[in-house]
Records
---
Amino acid sequence: MEKPPYAMIAILFVGAFVSLLNETLLNVALPSIMKDFDVSASAVQWLSTGYMLVNGILIPASAFFIQKFTNRNLFITAMILFTAGSVLATLSPTFSVLLAARMIQASGSAIMMPLLMNVMLASFPIERRGAAMGIFGLVMITAPAIGPTLSGWLIEHYSWRTLFDVVIPIATITLIFAFFKLKNITPQRNIKLDVFSLILSSIGFGGILYGFSSAGEKGWDSTHVYGTIAAGVISLVLFVLRQMKLEEPLLQFRIYKYPMFALSSAISVVLAMAMFSAMLLMPIYVQTIRGISPLDSGLLMLPGAIVMGIMSPVTGILFDKFGARILAVIGLSLTILTTFMFSNLTMDTSYGYIMGIYTLRMLGMSMVMMPVMTNGLNQLPPTMNPHGTAMNNTLQQVSGAVGSAFLVTLMQNRTESEIERLTQSSAGDPAAMANIANEAMLNGINFSFTVSVFIAIVALFLAFFMKRVKPSEQAGRQQQSAG
């Protein structure tokens, strides 16, 4: 086999790194944006959940794009969209324009990760893919790790718009290099896009998320809320039924006949809901309630992110030796314990305590994510791997977005009911009235973390049913059935 195109892979890595960095870059900035544009917590979280949702809608279509178009044209188009979105975001005069800019960014970034994974699979022989994917895993973890700390430092010294100013030159330089250096190495097939499937998946995922997000402002009894959730669920059911009938589906749902993949997928969905919620709730707690600076807020999350980065190759070695179940059970137990500790935050919980618990929580999660996902993918025959990775990426983005929307909505509703209760009990006392908003929001955050504990318990219960799958046995069985 020819020498892998390292220069080309490096360009794709930088593009993927910047798009991943951008996903978490804004989390620490959310309180500043809330203040600048005078919007609520449930509205501002759309900057994160909307970004994830666009990813979740477009990742299923990425399998079609990768087969239909050259990797060069796809990457250049994605980088143009991403750069244009970044420029619009830094210039945005209103919250609506900023939200639209984030959606444009996301439409570019959605194609990056599946494209990079495909190019790497095409560039490296099977015996060298493990090491290559190990580096890929580190990049996936390092970018979100740097995000909160970098954005914290920038917001401390400059405006939140600087977050986009930093990204623009890197994206532009990557685009120029891509134009001159990228070659086509992925095979093309003349396949047709099933437009109806794309419409159904967009209405399905979009309706569900929009319904959950709107509940914070409109209430769960609003026809606007349960109407959009119902439309989303019906569209998703129709989407799945249609995929089962198509010869070349947008997303291949037949992979769920492999029990370990189905189980790993369920655990990943539940875990994503719990993980993304903390990334949104923590900055609101430390900045809005405690008045901790954006830089210190970002630094608070850095040790946890570093631990996750270090553990990426370590869990790979432990997975090969012991399998996924033991790692998942230990990791999820740690996640449940630390999430429970977060459900008892007070007005004077120490900075060191919060940092320690957050780091332990990330350690727990690092022991679950990759091993569970790899164990599931190991059961799939090689031809199904692209569908497996597309399905995992889609579900992780969408469940993270729905989980965030759901838990922030719970926080918002709990905060409002607490404000009413505390206002009645402290009527006429000016000193007590001044603290009501913060006390109510603290109660709302603690309540959301309590719900997260129960979500994580579901994942722990499922983890006990995991069995070890050896890729060699599966491959052998495939060869026998083929022969």
---
Amino acid sequence: MFRGSIVALVTPMTQDGAVDFESLEQLVEFHIENGTDGIVAVGTTGESATLSVPEHIAVVGAVVKRVAGRIPVIAGAGANCTAEAIELTKAMDAIGADAMLTVAPYYNKPTQAGLLAHFSAIAAATEKPQLLYNVPGRTCCDMETATVAELSQIKNIVGIKDATGDLSRVTPLRQQCGEDFILLSGDDPTAMAFMLSGGDGVISVTNNVRPAEFKALCDAALAGDIATARRMDAQLSPLYSALFVEANPIPVKWAMEALAVTTQTHFRLPLISPSESTKEIVREALDASRSA
């Protein structure tokens, strides 16, 4: 169910910083029309850190309603406070999300035993599928493979988004967590190799701007069509670095405006609009990644 080209959806906002729900619904349709296999709503790319809990719930609810069962909706539900993550998880369950994506706690740097206790408590709060999210570059907390393997024994912890970019983890994760455990890349530059190494798909930032092309890449990689996968990866590769010249999601939201996918680019402080030099880098990457 959670496989292939999954978008880490941005949260469109108006100039005054309010959520732009009309544009959000248009983005949902844009992705369905372009073959995206699933949506992560209010993950870190969706500026979850600066949305209030009511806004968080409202955005996921709007995505679930608009999708109307056509593709899976995975709700961001992470926090560095276990009680808050449980509260979000219960709310995401109530509004009909198909699964939850829960990031490792950030800033407080729990031990591996603490991570086991944290994710076990969250999983116990719902029967819905849970996807772990390991992104130590953001959280300063790395889930070891042994920890993931132990958590994989919990019935509704069904997979992981691994954003380490460390391809040496794919085989041990598969061996220790089993064939049914879902392995999703969270690192666009290494996503193709991740899938060719046995991964099941990717939760992607690049997918926001080139969904059809990213879908073609994922389909080829998962089918073992190495030549096509490499060709699509080479086409999209200029975006992999350009979309992270400044903190995500600053470049990708501007790229979406440049492509007229959205009509305006606004952020919540402390994120601000990109510099002119960043815009030029992104513009050149968009041109280089255009389909022939």
---
Amino acid sequence: MPESKGRAKRTYTPPSKPAKAKVGNPPWFVPVMLTLMVVGLLWIVVFYITSQRFPVEAIGRWNLGVGFGLMLAGFAMTTRWR
């Protein structure tokens, strides 16, 4: 009895690798983060050094809130830093 020919096996091709997702932050992220923290700190220091007359005299003690708000925004950005 004749022997049947086997099917030709295809050569192995590995599956394509999925594209890697970009990990990291845009180049502006770290400078903005640091700038917010430094500006907030300077805002509070200027407020105390000038006997509560500057940076904005009209808002009084809310200058502390502005300074701490700027620093808090910079700190919040550190949680997203990769």
---
Amino acid sequence: MRKVKYYYDTETLSYRKIERKKGKVFGLTLLFILGTLVASILLLIVYLNIPGIETPKEKAYKRELDQMTFQYEMMNREMEEITSVVKELEERDNKIYRVYFEADPISEEQRKSGFGGVNRYKDLEGYNNSEIIIKTKKRLDQLKKRIVVQSKSLDEIVEYALNKEELLASIPAIQPVQNDDLKRTASGYGMRMHPIYKIRKMHTGMDFSAPEGTPIFATGNARVKKVKKSRRGYGYHVVLDHGFNYETLYAHMSKISVFRGQKVKRGEIIGYVGDTGSSTAPHLHYEVIKNGRHVNPVYFYYNDLSAEDYEAMINNSALENQSLD
């Protein structure tokens, strides 16, 4: 209960009760509230501007941010370990699996391709932690790409393994003309003097000098891709598709014994040595094409030559003599 206060009235010589005016009471109350509000705002400003002092909410956000940064660092370490394992698998793939099945190795550029040009990570820029986020995303994308390429390579190797017997039967592996019928290996693969133009020119195959009418054999199981009879260039010639990215060409024939689309076996007669087209003497011009590129045929006679014969053929084919076509 509020105390009642009195004052002495000298005019009436008596005590009177002190009564507060309502307007004055309201004004004092309003002044007190405003004072308290101003003081609170000032204290808050001072509190927020003092270095080292964080609000509970800020502390919680900082803890979450530190935890996120830690997790990103851990993810990058794990990706380093996975990348190391993938790299080892890639090396095995190139140096063992693909070599064994005679498949071309996959280059590092192919395994990492597809990340140039447009900035793929523009949406992740502009944040306090953009650097670590972009770094992690890049490594993840590269890792995914390498795994996809490696997965496709292993699928290819599995297919080669399943078709190993067919592969071995299809790869060109014998001479197209028997040794008994050969006069000589006239010219090998490489830069040679052209017999007609008298200039050094790339000779993309090997010339086997033999009497006209000497049988020519398919060097591996194949399908006849092309049969052409011309008075120029390769003259009467045949192209065989062996599958597995291998093709062989037999040129300057006197007679062709196969037709387009026919399947032939290794050792089967496909025609006879001749002197047709741009030729200067009876011979067979023989080419091996792998993945659309000419390769030296001398490396594909391992099925029917002794070590001595093979060495002699390599030495003869390396001589820079004049070709016959």
